[in-house]
Amino acid sequence: MPKQTAPPHFPAFIPHVIEEHWDDVWGPRLAGFPVNIVYAARIDGVGLAQATYVFDPGTFIEGEQTRQMRYRPTIESDFSVLVVLRPEGRIETFKYRASELICEACGPDFRTAMIHTTAIGFTSGEPWTNQKAFDNQAWSARFSRPTSDRLQGAP
Predict the structure, then answer these.
(1) What is the pLDDT of residue 120?
(2) Rounded to whole angstroms, what are the CA distances from 30 to 9, 20, 26, 95, 146?
(3) Distance between CA atoms of residues 1 and 122, nearest Å
(4) What confidence tens digit (pLDDT) does each residue in 45-57 have?
(5) Which end of the chain has a smaller Cβ tally under 10 Å, C or N?
(6) Domain map (residue ranges) of the chain
(7) Contact 52, 36 (CB under 8 A)
């Protein structure tokens, strides 16, 4: 297995937050949760590697003091992340391998909580993929549109 390196700056991904207007049914329930959670690391001989987790709305639970939902990895494994939202805005995350708690993080607001969550990086045995799409040229080519499209109201 490639050796994980300690870069001078850790990669942290701050996801978009689910907005109320995202969906008529799920939007109001899931508002405030992250769209996804991405853990990343620079690995010798590989470059930037990532483990992506996506929300599972079937695991959503709303209690008196919290709302919570589990995130599943995009690569089949027994890892998962539980995200807990508290009414005052505090967010807590708990990464599991099966039923074993591997690590936890929190923050008083969305941004801080997601930085603390993703700064943890990979856990031993966690499956990851290599993502080369972050080079600036590829990123720009895939996500930018010519100005004339924007002026004509293209979505």
Answers:
(1) 86
(2) 32, 7, 6, 19, 34
(3) 13
(4) 888 889 999 999 9
(5) C
(6) 20-151
(7) yes
